[in-house]
Write a structure and sequence with these properties.
The complex is a heterodimer of chains A (275) and B (291). Chain A contains 14 helices and no strands. Chain A has 275 residues and is mainly alpha-helical. With 291 residues, chain B is mainly alpha-helical. Chain B contains twelve helices and two strands. Chain B is globular and about 75 Å long. Classes of the chains: A mainly alpha (275), B mainly alpha (291). Chains A and B meet through α1, α4, α5, α6 and α7 of A and α1, α3, α4, α5 and α7 of B.
């Protein structure tokens, strides 16, 4: 008994150490967000907290952070919406519309291969293409790029979820004379709603976090939050305080989603990897 | 039945159109760019056909070579460490009763945070003058280390950041795999008096092999794509110590404006990765490899 207890005590101790190692850097940067530049540069551990960095970031005329935040919201929301609609339709098509097996395999393989390609290899071509179309520095460019990059994951996840929908439900609806659109909207979508939520959250976070595409396809007016944070870190005189404050605020959507919808996040991240 | 065939195409069409317009067309453009010298004059591109010269240059580009080597060292080392740590954490988590959800919540936090923010966090921690790591060294009377500015520690420092960032992802996938294993095998093993290590060696590892393989491929793909942390922390330096292929492409194409040459480099990397992926896939022989 006591042996059992020591062992479980050691397990908890080891996990607690891991938890501290993961949390400490977050705490460190959050603290940095509340330090003055001087206190930061002196590396003070005991300091008087100040909101100056946040005030500077949000309300100063030289800071675009609120615009960046709005841009990120617009880009992430629009690209998530596109991925949800397009991938649900495509996933339904390949799972339930009686395509020959080789087409389905070919399609999924294509999606997997595309997903293995680093975005940076396409960014140059997008830059060229969107400039020619007059879409450089537009939401459209970033939204289309993000939607396309996330399409494979969207299709993969939705296919996994649609596979679990009982065929009897669909057959009953078909007998009642449902068309495909009606069937999708009235029967399939309500059943896969948790799966849609998981996919939406994952794609939203991917788009929110994405950097290299946003860096090269946006300029001042359309820059997203990661681009803004990188700018604070790269300026001639690095503004560590604002960088930290901006970093803290940028994690808000993820934190909110983690507390409200952890189950969906876990499902989205693990579906497809684990049978 | 006839309208079903039409619906079959109509439901797939949006995905095909999006993919064709935003992936295939740019890839074709990339090919065209890669055999051209492109000069920007007053915001307009002037193309001149140069054949395959730029491909030859890519293969002899010393920065590109350094990038390939570093990318491989980085991805292999980081992913192996993550696999071991993630597996150990997942195993431990399955053996506790209380607080499993709490630990899982904490552990998945880094997965959800932008790579740039991860970079910002570690830029503060690694700082030579006031970073917490050097403060700790100082507290023990040890000399400060220029973690990111020293060629012998920079790549290691980046690997540490990646391990911190992505071990949680490996943990999460392996934990889900462990939780879905059939429990009756373990009960039978315990009745037969199997030790922990025997259980691990003869039951857990063989059963987990598919999940481990998928996780490994996921992570290797993501590892090879590394960019954000390099951009923020080292910019490929000092020298070429942390140069990775994504960064070389970015540098040649955007920083130096070598449009055609950057495109040729993109094509080389793209083809190499597609080939590597197809090989890895046929080795792991599973359908479920995507993210």
């Amino acid at each position: 008994m006591s042996l059992h207890r020591t062992r479980s005590g050691m397990l908890y101790a080891a996990l607690a150490v891991a938890a501290v190692l993961i949390l400490f850097p977050f705490v460190w940067i959050a603290l940095a967000g509340f330090k003055t530049q001087i206190s930061l540069l002196l590396g003070e551990v005991a300091f008087t907290p100040t909101l100056a960095n946040f005030r500077e970031l949000l309300f100063s005329s030289t800071s675009d952070y609120l615009v960046n935040f709005r841009n990120s919201l617009i880009v992430a929301t629009a690209s998530t919406a596109i991925v949800l609609v397009v991938s649900t339709l495509a996933a339904y098509s390949i799972e339930r519309m009686a395509w020959p097996r080789w087409t389905v395999h070919g399609f999924l393989l294509g999606a997997a291969v595309f997903n293995a390609i680093p975005a940076i290899t396409l960014v140059g071509a997008w830059y060229m293409m969107f400039r020619e179309l007059g879409l450089y520095n537009s939401y459209t460019a970033v939204v289309l790029a993000h939607a396309t990059l996330n399409l494979p994951i969207g299709i993969w996840l939705m296919a996994t979820f649609i596979r679990e929908v009982p065929r009897e439900l669909e057959e009953a609806a078909r007998i009642d004379g449902c068309g495909t659109v009606e069937l999708l909207w009235r029967v399939v979508v309500p059943v896969v709603l948790p799966g849609l939520a998981a996919t939406a959250i994952l794609v939203f976070i991917h788009s929110w976090n994405e950097f290299v595409v946003a860096l090269n396809l946006t300029a001042k007016q359309t820059a997203t939050v990661p681009v803004a944070i990188a700018k604070y870190a790269q300026e001639h005189e690095t503004k560590y305080g604002e960088m930290a404050a901006g970093a803290v605020l940028s994690t808000l959507p993820a934190l909110i989603l983690l507390f409200l919808a952890q189950r969906h996040i876990v499902r989205g991240l693990t579906a497809g990897a684990v049978k | 039945m006839k309208s079903r065939t039409a619906d079959r195409w109509l439901t797939l069409a949006p995905a095909l159109v999006l993919f064709a317009a935003v992936a295939l067309v740019p890839m074709a453009e990339l090919l065209a760019m890669s055999v051209s010298h492109i000069e920007w004059l007053q915001g307009k591109a002037h193309w001149e056909f140069v054949g395959f010269d730029q491909y030859a240059r890519v293969l002899s580009d010393s920065l590109f070579r350094a990038g390939v080597v570093n990318t491989l060292i980085f991805a292999v080392t980081a992913v192996l460490v993550q696999m071991v740590l993630g597996f150990a954490l997942a195993l431990m988590t399955t053996r506790i009763v209380r607080g499993r959800t709490l630990f899982r919540t904490v552990f998945i936090l880094p997965i959800l945070v932008p790579g740039i923010v991860i970079g910002a966090i570690w830029k503060l921690m690694y700082n030579f003058d006031f970073g917490v790591l050097n403060q700790m060294l100082g507290a023990f009377g040890l000399p400060a280390i220029d973690w990111l500015g020293n060629a012998s520690t920079a790549l290691l420092a980046i690997i540490v950041v990646d391990v911190w960032h992505w071990t949680p992802f490996v943990f999460l996938l392996l934990l889900a795999g462990l939780e879905s294993l059939p429990q009756d095998v373990y009960e039978a093993a315990r009745v037969d008096g199997a030790t922990f290590w025997q259980e691990l060696r003869y039951i857990t590892l063989p059963l987990m092999l598919p999940t481990i393989a998928v996780t490994l491929v996921f992570r290797m793909i993501m590892g090879v794509k590394v960019f954000d942390e390099i951009y923020l922390l080292t910019g490929g330096g000092p020298g070429t110590a942390t140069e990775v292929v994504s960064y070389t492409i970015f540098r040649r194409f955007f920083t130096e404006g070598q449009t055609g040459y950057g495109a040729a480099m993109s094509v080389v990397v793209l083809l190499a990765l597609v080939l590597a992926f197809v090989v890895a896939r046929s080795l792991t022989r599973r359908r479920e490899v995507v993210a």
